[in-house]
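mind reviewing both lines:
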Amino acid sequence: METNEFLSKHSQELSEKYPGKYLAIVDAEVVSISSSSHEAFKKAKEKYPDKKIHISYMPTPAEVNILI
């Protein structure tokens, strides 16, 4: 499963579980979570130095309401 497909399928549950956090995703798996995109990437890169890392922000409910 590709990252975009993974996010489409799981975005609701990830947003509820990790509001306001940055997720580092490798091979359709969340491998690091942080309040900072840099920190999420850094932790993921330490675990998976040779893999492509995708960073995605999970908005808070208030942020989602602004977008609607």
